[in-house]
Amino acid sequence: MKGNMNNMMKQMQKMQKKMMKAQEELHEMTFEASAGGGMVTVVANGKKEITDVQISEEVVDPDDVDMLQDLVLAATNDVIKQIEDKTNDTMGEFTKGMNLPGGGMF
């Protein structure tokens, strides 16, 4: 019985290392989303940090600031959703079949 416990601990350590590597890889990824036909582009890393925002001069209209704000919000929300989806897909591979609280997602 002690041998089984040692094997299980080794397997858990291997899985933990794989999970940490996968999480590091996710953090290094770059995600990009745009709105308004590319008029606004938001870039973020896998840590959900916005690293760049590009706004086309054509969409900057002092008389229609609301539209610009909506485009920035749409692109930002889209890029965050991409990161969350990728994180859930990647990290979910490690929690399949486990009965973890909160669905086992990170």
Structural account:
This is Nucleoid-associated protein SAMN05216238_103297. This protein has helices at 2-28, 65-95, and strands at 30-35, 40-45, 50-55. With 106 residues, the chain is an alpha+beta fold. The chain has a domain at 24-85: Ybab, Chain: A. A three-stranded antiparallel β-sheet has the order 1-2-3. It starts with a helix and ends in an 11-residue tail after the last helix. The mean pLDDT is 89.
As residue ranges, the low-confidence spans are none
Cα radius of gyration in angstroms: 20 Å
- Which sequence of strands runs across the widest sheet? 1-2-3
What average pLDDT do the residues reach? 89
What's the arrangement of secondary structure elements?
Elements: H1 2-28, E1 30-35, E2 40-45, E3 50-55, H2 65-95
Antiparallel strand pairs: 1-2, 2-3
Helix pairs in contact: 1-2
Q: Brief description of this entry?
A:
The protein has 106 residues and is an alpha+beta fold. It contains two helices and three strands.
